[in-house]
Amino acid sequence: MRPVTPPHQALAPTPWRSRSLNLSGLAGAFAILAVLCLLSVSIGTRTTSLSEIVAGLSGSNETIAEAAVSLRVPRTLLAVLAGAALGVAGCVMQGVTRNPLADPGILGVNTGAALAVVIGIAWFGMSDPQDFLWSGIVGAGLTAVFVYTIGSLGRDGATPLKLALAGTATAITFSSLVVAIILPRADIAGGIQSWQIGGVGGATLSRTLSILPVLGAGFAISLLSARKLNLLALGEDMATGLGERVAVARLTAAAGAILLCGAATAVCGPIAFVGLVVPHVCRLLAGVDYRWLLPFSALGGAGLLVAADILGRIVARPAEIDVGIVTALIGAPFFIWIVRARRVRAL
Questions:
Q1: How far from chain centre, in Å, is Cα 325?
Q2: CA–CA gap between residue 197 and residue 201 (Å, rounded)
Q3: Per-residue pLDDT averaged across 209-219, rounded?
Q4: Would the pLDDT of 1 be above 60?
Q5: In the chain, how many domains are there?
Q6: Does the CA dihedral 49-51-52-57 come out positive or negative?
Q7: Nearest CA to 27 among 307, 292, 308, 218?
Q8: Among residues 192, 197, 196, which one has the least CA distance to residue 321?
């Protein structure tokens, strides 16, 4: 039987050695992300040299390579922001629900955001990117409440398995509704079907920058909830005994995750499994303290999405594979492994 860490030790400050190792790990993760961003800017249908990258970054479009660099920069920036948002959102969701299967895709939150955006486009003629953004956030929030309510029914409450089943059923139902809405609308079907796969191609700097305020708020709320998530990890009774209001803590942390997930989905489409894979890998590197786990998840999610985008350009050159497909190929086996592992019942 695995020993249980006493509450006073679980909440104690991180030892200097662990803090130093985690800082080194964050620096290493940031360096890897910087290299991936450089590769993302340089790799595509046309490979560019360092001098062409520098010229393209300075605003020059005199050659085809320099123009390609200027197009890849917003795409790379969007991949970084969306990946970080999904990584942190997944980490927060796992902490709030104490569910190792929690992920914006598996819990249906991504699909709910996508459904809200599709309804806005098809039924209300929505075209403003800001309308997409707020529709995605509202859809993500309503879906999260719905899935948690359904998963809480019964004697045992919101168990990990019930939440995963409720989220999966909701995601399938909402995906079917999206198809039913767009089938009669040939004028919008092509664009929505492409967006629904999930990708960062065609990103523009203005659209990417438009989600920064919402992402900033989501990141801030999530990071400020780190201590609350540490207390929730001890169990509801222990957290209450230590003076934490469990319902408020869950609601606050979930609000940050919903902002991040809704904003990322509104711009990129529903990208699954980033929020599942990244937090589990980061726990192996940073441990279970959310004060470290959340920053690691942000860098890890950004790195995973940028790497998936690069891989999608390489394997199908001169065509591309959207990142939503690449992350699904990576995440599906990981999901099966978690389901079969010992951590299915509790986090």
A1: 15
A2: 11
A3: 94
A4: no
A5: 1
A6: positive
A7: 292
A8: 197
Q: Quick check: 166 and 150 in contact, CB under 8 A?
A: yes
Q: Give the C-alpha separation, 57 to 41, whole Å.
A: 9
Q: Decide if 65 is inside a domain.
A: no
Residue 108 lies in a domain: yes
Residue 105 vs residue 37, higher pLDDT? 37
CATH classification at residue 140: 1.10.3470.10
CB distance 101 to 276 below 8 Å? yes
| Tokens encoding 321 | 């594979």
Look up the pTM and report it.
0.88
DSSP letters, 244-310, are: --HHHHHHHHHHHHHHHHHHHHHHH----SHHHHHHHHHHHHH-S-HHHHHHHHHHHHHHHHHHHHH
Tokens matching residue 176: 């079917």
- Which residue range is the domain that position 269 belongs to? 76-340
| Alpha-carbon separation of residue 168 from 81, 165, 253 (angstroms) | 26, 5, 22
Give the pLDDT of residue 130: 87
Answer whether residue 175 is part of any domain.
yes
In angstroms, rounded to a whole number, what is the distance separating the alpha carbons of residues 109 and 224?
22
Check pLDDT > 80 for residue 8.
no
The phi-psi region of residue 310 (left if phi > 0; otherwise alpha if psi is between -120 and 50; otherwise beta) is alpha
Please state, in angstroms and as integers, the Cα–Cα distance from residue 38 to each residue in 175, 270, 307, following that order: 35, 25, 11
CA-based nearest residue to 323, from 276, 282, 268, 280: 268
Q: Is the pLDDT of residue 174 over 80?
A: yes
Convert 304-322 to b/e letters by CB count within 10 Å (16 or more is b).
bbbbbbbbbbeeeeeebbb
Of the pLDDT bands very low, low, confident and very high (cuts 50, 70, 90), residue 7 is very low
pLDDT in tens, 259-318: 999 999 999 989 989 999 999 999 988 888 999 999 999 999 999 999 999 999 888 777
Residue 233 lies in a domain: yes
Q: Which of 216-225, 262-271, 308-317, 333-342 has the highest mean pLDDT?
A: 216-225
